[in-house]
Structure formats: C-alpha cells, structure tokens
Amino acid sequence: MTRPGGQGRSQTLERTGTQRPRLWRVLLLNDDYTPMEFVVLVLERYFRKAEQEAQLIMLAVHHKGQGIAGVYTKDVAETKVAQVTDHARREGHPLMVVAEPEDNP
C-alpha cells in the first residue's frame, strides 16, 4: 500500500505478520538423591500432570536421565524452572530443572 508522502514522493507501508513464539521444553534431570515421590509431586503440582503421567515421566527421568515435564513459551518455562528449583532446594533436594528451546522454532 502506498500513501502520498508529500512533495511528490510515495511512502511504502509494510505489513508485518505475527509469528508463533518459540517454544521451550522444561526438562527434569536425574540425580542419585532426589526421591522419586518428590519428582512425581513436582510434576503434579507445577506441571498439572495426572498421577499416572507423572509416574511415567518420573520413570523416564530415572531410566533415561531426563524427562520432559512440559513445553511452554520462554517466560513460562523460565518461571517453572525457578519455581521447581526453589521448591526442591527448600526441601533439601538437588533436583535439576532446565529449559531448552525446541529444535523447530
């Protein structure tokens, strides 16, 4: 679309499209000290997982070294990491929680 820009010139207006925000995975990492029950509690409380799904994710963490707790926008993922890390430390657990971008932006 063009608009007269004064003195015989035209001004071109660009349309910008909106894109979906990049998504980030929140991962729980295995350690030898955090109780499995605590991992299930975290998955239920902070990631709203049903008990059975929380158990499956906890077993993935235990056997594969990590499990995906959820996929969120960057701000939400970072908030979840901070909340879970804070809760784990208050309870004396070294549970590691990280957020990483998904491969396909």
From TrEMBL:
Entries under InterPro entries matching the protein: ClpS, ClpS_core, Ribosomal_bL12_C/ClpS-like
Alphabetical list of NCBIfam families matching this protein: PRK00033.1-5
Pfam families for this protein: ClpS
SUPFAM superfamilies in the record: ClpS-like
Keywords assigned by UniProt, alphabetized: Hydrolase, Protease
Protein name per Swiss-Prot or TrEMBL: ATP-dependent Clp protease adapter protein ClpS
Subunit note: Binds to the N-terminal domain of the chaperone ClpA.
Region (Disordered): 86-105
Role description: Involved in the modulation of the specificity of the ClpAP-mediated ATP-dependent protein degradation.
One record GO biological process: proteolysis
